[in-house]
Design goal:
Chain lengths: ~450, ~250
């Protein structure tokens, strides 16, 4: 076996534990203690790739004896972490970059610290990631306590870091300016650290240094470019889709507004008739009749006008136009079914950012409202209440409607249950699937005493 | 000891609730006391800060003539005493707003404008809260907590029929009760060890054995108390029947 290959294999042996720890640090920093299969597979593959890149780097460096490839593994780590946070954890690009930087910086500092302690305690056994050849068999053994110490220290200090910086994190999460500043600090520091490491490895060899810098920029530049194109395309797609949904909701809304206006015209006409009727009673001096007419006809009508108008007005506390649009639209449809359907909206707090993509939310609320409307149509009367409130950064939507007392939850949870003829009823299973696709959403459905309630809880960070 | 706290700005109304509580304590002799009866929400919060309570029973007037209304007070109390039992006293004859019920997770409501019912309703609330307090450490009193961001949802163990893995999305669980279905983030392995009454009967079902009507060994089915049918796997059958036997003994 050639010396370079031997050295590369030994490096792989050294790296695998270290990288595993580094990726677990990355996982712990997201404060998500649960594991799922996709994530586990990604992390295992990432560890293997990082180890591979490190070994290839060592192999090439030994063969070419010029450290031309000395930063291959660092760029691989950067890319793998970006992918991890962006694609697996669904963080924004900005947050992924910041987290990537923090994790790598933290892990590197810890690794150096442990290596330093180890070297000073056992001066004749040096063990960092960068073991200098020649390699002896005893290296393999000595590495084990080192790896153990390193993993324990890393995990404990990461958990501590997460706990200690809790309030700082919430601040950064809520403050986009702080995020931008942090992002730039991370980007600039990453470049400076990579360059400094590069310069240190070359120790003044200008020719190799400049070549290496060239390689470095090519790796990192190419990775970041690919990444930016990738995210931009996704973003454009999402924006287009969102615009379409907004437009759809808006045109629905306008259409409904028109209907509402013609309804108003009709109402004006009716109103005049009512006034004429009043005049009729007055002319005849039929005061009892007038009183009776007032309590039976006018009072209930005005109550409806007040509550329904009020319902739409309350929606103004919800800031996202597409959400407001879909709720207003469905409310108006419900109001138009019959005079015996009473609607109200409880949204007393201002609802700004909702931590879910609005396309899914519009679809989910659409399904929930359609179910309510369908049931109210069957009944011909009843109540429909929408409530929306915040608990910290978590937003809750509740839609409650009167329903037939005979329906049980069991009927509804069966896929394809139809409330009303063919073609309906797929809504609930679609809703369940839509909600399930978002880890931060809890969906509660309940039926009791002729009241059907759906609650959508959207958890913020 | 179950501590009762009243916050009501109208003195006559306050005295009335106080009397009902005292009467209940006298008649039933429960481990309960009236810890505080105040007119202003700040008094309640100051008291709670000085004497931290666990699982107290709170009667709160919704329309406090103060800088804070009853709902806001309820939310603040929840922060200080997370397992608080909150009962609102309100004049709203029309439907009690949904936000009350769901944001503060209040247990019940007493309507002021039905004077003839106030006593009975208040006693009902005290009784229920006391039962819950007594069961606090027994399995019946335990709650399953679903946390979504900052919002918490509590379901008493005694109401849970079974848990099921979401049919299409693996990282979601569905909790079933007789009247509710809650879909939240979780895995079946997280719920199999909740308590002796929960037992996994299938790779994606975990059932409350106290809620089983019968087990059909040939069809490999379990019928729940509400008539719902869930599957059981052959592999788990023996162990499952053992568990049922143990729990009935």
């Amino acid at each position: 076996m050639s010396y370079a290959l031997q050295y590369a294999l030994f490096t792989a042996y050294l790296s695998i534990v270290v990288y595993m720890v580094v990726f677990i640090v990355g996982k712990v920093i997201t404060q998500d203690w649960k594991w799922n299969r996709k994530e586990t597979i990604f992390l295992l593959i990432a560890v293997l790739l990082a180890t591979l890149s490190r070994s290839v780097e060592i192999y090439l460096t030994t063969i070419f004896a010029g450290a031309y490839f000395s930063l291959l593994s660092s760029s691989a780590l950067i890319l793998l972490f970006l992918l991890y946070f962006y694609k697996i954890k669904y963080y924004s690009f900005r947050k992924s970059f910041i987290l990537m930087f923090i994790v790598l910086l933290f892990a590197t500092v810890l690794e150096s610290a442990v290596a330093l302690v180890f070297t000073s305690v056992f001066p004749n056994l040096y063990f960092g990631l960068s073991v200098v050849p020649p390699i002896h068999a005893q290296h393999f053994l000595h590495y084990i306590p080192y790896a153990l110490l390193y993993s324990t220290v890393s995990l404990v200090s990461t958990v501590l870091l997460v706990k200690v910086t809790q309030s700082l994190r919430t601040f950064i999460n809520q403050n986009t300016q702080a995020q931008t500043v942090l992002l730039w600090i991370s980007v600039i520091s990453t470049i400076i650290i990579l360059l400094a490491a590069n310069a240190w490895i070359m120790q003044g060899d200008i020719l190799i240094f400049s070549w290496n810098t060239f390689f470095l920029f090519t790796y990192v530049g190419a990775s970041i470019l690919v990444f930016i194109f990738f995210t931009r395309e996704l973003k454009i797609k999402a924006t287009i889709q969102q615009k379409e949904t907004e437009q759809q909701a808006m045109s629905f809304y306008l259409h409904q507004l028109e209907e509402h206006l013609s309804g108003m015209r009709k109402f004006k006409h009716d109103y005049l008739n009512i006034l004429n009727a009043l005049y009729g009673f007055i002319l005849a001096g039929d005061w009892d009749g007038l009183a009776n007419y007032y309590t039976t006809k006018i009072e209930p009508a005005s109550a409806i006008i007040v509550t329904d108008e009020f319902a739409l007005e309350n929606l103004s506390n919800i800031q996202a136009p597409e959400i407001k649009g879909i709720l207003a639209l469905k409310l108006m449809i419900a109001q138009n079914i019959s005079m015996d359907i009473h609607t109200s909206v409880e949204a007393h707090e201002e609802i700004g950012a909702i931590p879910v993509d609005s396309i899914s939310l519009v679809r989910m609320l659409g399904i929930i409202m359609d179910n309510a409307i369908e049931e109210l149509e069957t009944l011909g009367k009843g109540d429909l209440v929408i409530a929306c409130f915040k608990t910290g950064n978590t937003v809750t939507f509740i839609v409650q409607n009167t329903c037939r007392p005979a329906i049980s939850l069991r009927d509804l949870s069966q896929t394809g249950f139809t409330n009303k003829g063919e073609g309906h009823g797929l809504g609930l299973s679609n809703l369940s699937e839509l909600a399930a696709a978002h880890p931060n959403i809890t969906l509660q459905t309940s039926i009791a005493d002729g009241t059907f309630t759906q609650r959508l809880i959207i958890g913020g960070e | 000891m179950l501590h009762v706290i009243i916050c009501e700005d109208d003195p006559s109304q306050r005295v009335r609730i106080e009397k009902i509580v005292h009467k209940y304590i006298l008649e039933e002799d429960p481990a309960m006391d009236l810890a505080l009866s105040a007119g202003r929400p700040t008094d309640v919060l100051d008291y709670l800060k000085a004497h931290p309570l666990k699982s107290g029973l709170y009667f709160l007037d919704v329309d406090l003539q103060s800088e804070m209304n009853g709902i806001e007070l309820g939310a603040k109390i929840r922060e200080l005493d997370t397992s608080a039992t909150i009962v609102f006293i309100t004049t709203h004859t029309d439907k009690v707003p949904l936000v009350f019920r769901y944001k503060v997770e209040a247990m019940d409501y007493i309507l002021k404008d039905q004077p003839q019912k106030i006593e009975a309703r208040t006693r009902e609330c005290i009784h229920l809260a006391y039962q819950r307090y007594l069961n606090g450490n027994s399995p019946e009193g335990k709650h399953f907590v679903v946390k979504t961001g900052d919002q918490v949802l509590n379901v008493p163990y005694a109401e849970i029929l079974f848990f099921e893995t979401h049919p299409t999305i693996r990282h979601k669980l569905i909790l079933h009760t007789a009247t509710e279905r809650i879909e939240f983030r979780g895995f079946i392995k997280d719920v199999e060890n909740l308590g002796p009454e929960f037992c996994q009967c299938h790779k994606s079902f975990c059932v409350n054995i106290k809620k089983i009507k019968r087990v059909d060994r040939t069809k490999l089915e379990i019928e729940m108390s509400n008539g719902e049918i869930i599957p059981i796997s052959t592999r788990r059958m023996t162990e499952f029947l053992d568990r049922i036997e143990k729990s009935t003994n």
